[in-house]
C-alpha cells in the first residue's frame, strides 16, 4: 500500500547515517508513514496506511478544511504566544476510532551551516484513535553553528491515545528550542518519550500537557549531557479535570555538561493523581545537575508526590564489577548504560528493541 | 598449576583505622582454608584487600598469588589472574542484569554456562543485579558469577548465610565438585560451619584482634569455638 508517495528522498551517506541514529527506518517495513524535512525543504512525505495522513503543515493548511482551526489553538488555550516565522513542519492526523500500530516516522534534518530551522508541527488524533509517532531531529555533522526551533501542537481527542517518541541527536554547535503543548480531551492518553544522548550546545524545552477529565499524561526522558552541553529540560502537566493522572520520569547523566531537570505538576482540579521522579548521575567533576521538581495545587483532594535523587557512580559498584575481571572504564560505561534505563520509557514493543540498540550504539561511541 | 595464596606481614587500614595488622596466612596449591572470626574482626576486609579495593589500604606487607606479588595490580587484573570472590554483601546495580554479567565474564551466551542450570537461577537471569534479591537468591547469584569466572582461587565470604538447608546442600555439592574437578584453592569464611559438611577443607583458622590464630583441623577449630567461644582463641596463639 502506498497512498501518497510523491517522491522518494535521495539521501547521502552522511544523511542516512545521521537519520539511522534517530530511529529512521528507510525500509519503512514497520512504519505507517514517513516525513523528512531538510532545513526548510520537504524531502519526503509518505502515507503508508489509509487511516493516517502525513504531509507538510503548509500543504495541510491549504488542502485540509479544518487544519487552520487547530493551528495555534493549543497556545491560545494557555494564553501563550508562539513564534510565527516558521517554515515547514509536519501534519499527522489519524482518523476517529482507528488504531494504527506501526509508528509514523518524522525527521527534521538540519544541514546548512548557520541555518535557523524553524518548524511548526500539528498532530491530531481524532476521538477514539490510537497512534504511535517517532520523531527524530538531527543535524549534519559539519553544520557548525545551527539553530532548531520546533513548535508542536498535539490534539488528543476524547478517548484517543498518542504515543510520541522524540529522539534528538544534535552536534556540539546546535542550539535547540522545542516548544510543545498537548491538549488532551476527556479520557485521552498522551505519552511522550524523549531521548537525547548525543552532544548539543544547548536545549531548552518545557513541553506541557493540559489534561481534561479522566485523561492521562506520561512524560519520560533520558538525557546525557556531554562536556559543553547545557540542557534545560522539563515537563509540565496541567490538570483541568477530575480523575486525571500523570507521571513524569527522568534520568539525567552528566558527563561534564549541565542538566537542569524540571518537572511541574499543577492541579487546577481536585481528584487527580500525579507523580514526578527524577534521578541524576554525575560522572565527571565538571558536571552539574540541578533537579527542580514542583507540585502546585489549591485543592486538598489530590495525590501528588515527587522524588529526586542525584549521585555519582558508586565506587563500590565499580569495584564489584572489576572484581569480575571487567576493566574500570568498561565498568563505568556499563553502569552509565544501565542508568540510562530505556525501561522507564513507555515504548511500544516494536520500538523497544530499536531504541535499546540505539542507546547501546550511542553510548558506546559517546563515552 | 600454582594457585597458592601467601599473605606476608599484611597491615590493612580502613579510613585510617588499622583493621588487620602484621597478618600472615598461607593456602597451598589446591587446598581449602576455612576462616572463622567474630563479627567485625576483619574477614571481609581481608578479601577486599586481596582484591585491591581502594578503601582498604595496604600499609605494609605482601600478597603473593601463584608465586607472584600482586600488590601492584588493579582489581580486574587480579580477577584475570584467576582470583574470584563471592561477596557477603554485593551492591545492587540497576540496569545491569545477571545474564549480562555472566556473558561479560564468559563471553558466551549465558544459557551455555552449565552453572545456570545447576544453581537453579533461571528466574534471576533477567533481573537487575541484586535488586530485591532475597538473601538466598543473592548467594546463588554470587556463586553463579564467581564460578562462571572459572577462578583458580576462590574467596568465599559467608556463602551459606541466609541460605535454606536444601539450597546449602545444592550449593555445597556444586562448589565441592568444582573445587575438586579444577583443583581450585579456596578461602571460605563461615560462621555456621555448614560448609564443612560439603567441602573438603584441610585447615581452619580464626581471625581476631587483627591477626590469625588457632590454625588447625577445621572440625576441631569449629568445635572449640562452639564450646568455648572466641574468647578461648585469644589464649591459643600462633599457628
Ligand atoms: N568501607 C569501610 N568503611 C569503614 N569501616 C569499614 C569499612 N569496611 C569495614 N569497616 C570496618 O572494619 C571492621 C571489619 O569489618 P569486616 O567487614 O571486615 O568484618 P567481618 O569480619 O567481615 O565481620 P562480619 O562477620 O560481621 O561479616 C569493622 O569494624 C567495620 O565496621
Ligand atoms: Mg564480613
Automatic annotation (TrEMBL), chain B:
Transmembrane segments: none annotated. It comes from the Bacteria. Residues 5-234 form the ABC transporter domain. Keywords: ATP-binding, Nucleotide-binding. GO terms for molecular function: ATP binding; ATP hydrolysis activity. InterPro entries: AAA+_ATPase, ABC_transporter-like_ATP-bd, FeS-cluster_ATPase_SufC, P-loop_NTPase. SUPFAM superfamilies: P-loop containing nucleoside triphosphate hydrolases. Belongs to the ABC transporter superfamily. Ycf16 family. PANTHER family: ABC TRANSPORTER I FAMILY MEMBER 6, CHLOROPLASTIC. This is ABC transporter ATP-binding protein.
Amino acid at each position: 500500500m502506498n497512498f501518497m508517495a510523491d517522491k522518494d528522498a535521495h539521501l547521502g551517506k552522511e544523511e542516512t547515517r545521521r537519520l539511522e541514529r534517530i530511529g529512521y527506518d528507510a525500509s519503512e517495513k514497520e512504519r505507517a508513514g514517513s516525513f523528512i524535512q531538510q532545513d526548510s525543504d520537504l524531502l519526503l512525505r509518505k502515507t503508508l496506511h489509509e487511516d493516517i495522513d502525513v504531509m507538510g503543515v503548509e500543504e495541510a493548511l491549504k488542502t485540509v478544511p479544518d487544519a487552520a482551526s487547530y493551528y495555534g489553538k493549543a497556545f491560545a488555550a494557555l494564553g501563550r504566544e508562539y513564534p510565527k516565522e516558521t517554515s515547514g513542519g509536519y501534519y499527522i492526523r489519524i482518523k476517529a476510532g482507528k488504531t494504527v500500530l506501526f509508528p509514523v516516522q518524522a525527521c527534521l534534518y538540519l544541514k546548512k551551516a548557520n541555518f535557523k530551522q524553524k518548524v511548526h508541527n500539528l498532530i491530531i488524533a481524532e476521538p477514539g484513535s490510537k497512534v504511535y509517532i517517532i520523531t527524530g531531529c538531527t543535524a549534519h555533522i559539519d553544520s557548525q553553528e545551527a539553530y532548531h526551533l520546533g513548535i508542536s501542537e498535539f490534539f488528543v481527542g476524547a478517548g484517543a491515545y498518542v504515543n510520541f517518541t522524540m529522539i534528538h541527536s544534535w552536534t556540539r554547535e546546535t542550539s535547540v528550542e522545542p516548544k510543545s503543548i498537548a491538549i488532551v480531551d476527556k479520557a485521552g492518553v498522551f505519552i511522550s518519550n524523549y531521548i537525547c544522548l548525543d552532544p548539543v550546545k544547548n536545549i531548552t524545552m518545557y513541553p506541557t500537557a493540559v489534561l481534561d477529565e479522566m485523561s492521562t499524561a506520561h512524560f519520560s526522558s533520558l538525557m546525557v549531557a556531554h562536556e559543553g552541553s547545557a540542557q534545560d529540560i522539563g515537563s509540565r502537566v496541567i490538570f483541568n479535570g477530575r480523575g486525571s493522572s500523570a507521571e513524569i520520569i527522568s534520568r539525567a547523566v552528566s558527563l561534564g555538561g549541565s542538566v537542569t531537570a524540571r518537572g511541574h505538576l499543577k492541579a487546577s482540579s481536585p481528584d487527580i493523581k500525579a507523580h514526578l521522579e527524577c534521578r541524576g548521575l554525575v560522572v565527571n567533576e565538571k558536571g552539574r545537575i540541578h533537579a527542580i521538581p514542583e507540585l502546585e495545587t489549591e485543592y486538598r483532594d489530590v495525590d501528588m508526590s515527587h522524588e529526586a535523587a542525584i549521585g555519582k557512580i558508586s565506587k563500590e559498584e565499580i569495584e564489584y564489577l572489576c572484581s569480575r575481571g571487567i576493566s574500570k572504564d568498561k565498568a563505568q560505561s556499563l553502569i552509565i548504560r544501565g542508568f540510562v534505563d530505556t525501561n522507564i520509557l513507555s515504548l511500544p514493543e516494536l520500538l523497544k528493541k530499536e531504541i535499546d540498540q540505539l542507546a547501546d550504539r550511542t553510548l558506546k561511541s559517546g563515552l | 598449576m600454582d594457585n597458592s595464596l601467601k599473605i606476608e606481614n599484611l597491615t590493612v587500614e580502613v579510613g585510617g583505622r588499622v583493621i588487620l595488622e602484621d597478618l600472615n596466612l598461607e593456602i597451598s596449591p589446591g587446598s581449602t582454608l576455612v576462616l572463622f572470626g567474630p563479627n567485625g574482626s576483619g574477614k571481609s576486609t581481608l578479601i577486599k584487600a586481596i582484591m585491591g579495593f581502594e578503601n582498604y589500604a595496604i600499609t605494609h606487607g605482601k600478597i603473593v598469588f601463584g608465586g607472584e606479588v600482586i600488590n601492584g595490580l588493579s582489581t580486574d587484573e587480579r580477577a584475570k589472574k584467576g582470583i574470584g570472590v563471592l561477596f557477603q554483601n554485593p551492591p545492587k546495580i540497576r540496569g545491569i542484569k545477571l545474564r549480562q554479567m555472566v556473558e561479560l565474564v564468559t563471553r558466551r551466551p549465558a544459557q551455555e554456562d552449565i552453572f545456570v542450570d545447576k544453581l537453579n537461577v533461571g528466574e534471576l537471569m533477567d533481573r537487575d543485579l541484586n535488586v530485591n534479591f532475597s538473601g538466598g537468591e543473592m548467594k546463588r547469584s554470587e556463586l553463579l558469577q564467581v564460578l562462571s569466572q572459572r577462578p583458580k582461587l576462590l574467596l568465599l565470604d559467608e556463602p551459606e548465610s541466609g541460605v535454606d538447608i536444601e539450597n546449602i546442600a545444592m550449593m555445597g555439592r556444586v562448589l565441592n565438585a568444582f573445587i575438586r574437578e579444577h583443583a581450585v584453592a579456596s578461602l571460605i569464611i563461615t560462621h555456621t560451619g555448614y560448609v564443612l559438611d560439603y567441602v573438603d577443607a584441610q585447615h581452619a583458622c580464626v581471625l581476631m584482634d587483627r591477626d590469625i590464630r588457632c590454625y588447625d583441623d577445621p572440625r576441631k577449630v569449629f568445635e572449640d569455638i562452639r564450646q568455648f567461644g572466641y574468647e578461648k582463641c585469644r589464649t591459643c596463639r600462633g599457628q
